[in-house]
TrEMBL record:
Residues 104-222 form the NAD-dependent epimerase/dehydratase domain. CDD domains: SDR_a4 (cd05266). InterPro entries: Epimerase_deHydtase, NAD(P)-bd_dom_sf. Keywords: NAD. Coiled coil: none annotated. It comes from the Bacteria. This is SDR family oxidoreductase. Transmembrane segments: none annotated. It holds the Pfam family Epimerase.
Amino acid sequence: MTDTTKHLFCFGLGYSALVFARRLLAKGWRVSGTVRPGADKDRGKMDALRAEGIMVWPFDRDAVLPNADEALLGVTHILTSVPPDAEGDAVFDHHVTDILACKSLKWFGYLSTTGVYGNRDGGLVHEEDVLHPSSTRSQRRAKAELQWQQLFHEENLPLQIFRLAGIYGPGRSPIDSIRRGRVKQRINKPGHIFSRIHVEDIANVLEASLERPDPGRIYNVCDNAPEEPWRVTTRACELIGIAPPPLVSFEAADMTPMARSFWLDNKRVDNSRMLHELGVVLQYPDYETGLQSLL
């Protein structure tokens, strides 16, 4: 039975947001949101989601919500995962007035990235640390965070920010990449670690925030076991019985500029606020349990 008093609207029904949206849909929430218009695969996605019972609207920077007041009517919770582009945050630029006019709104979640901290040479980062984003992508995220935070202070937007580590899960994991033949090398950069988070645990954190809303709060969202990427690849290969690809030095690795940019930052991410304040018990607290679940 649908609970018409709870209505989640997602700006961007992407990989993480859709797991969360489907979970609430199964619990009787009304769920709606946006996908990018234009491409055949996007039109097919819109039709498939509508068949599931999710009301879908086309949206991107060049195609704003045609009837935003109708789309947001009665919405109680908003999640935005649309990444900012070179011009800024398209959701903020086009629909901030519509969001502030949504009188039924109780919770607003913004999915950001731990990339906003920048490089700390393996040091630990906390939510209150000053941001030093290294890449253009992370600089845009930091700017978008600040815009939404200003609305929390000036307009009482019920904002919570979630800084996500590297996301993996079904269809989007080291095991999937290996099986598809996309992993040609393991990159060895001693002491360089990455934090991760299973997509189901992202949904767990977001659900916990619904139960314990704290407007203005920021949460790091990652598991308990940051690790060097080559070790994760090695373990994934072991689990599926495939010989691991060659181990090469970072300097000698064959990577695109985009792929190499992900190695700008080396840090450990503190997730204690997420665990203690939201009472989250991670379903996949480390990459070992996460990889096992994907078999």
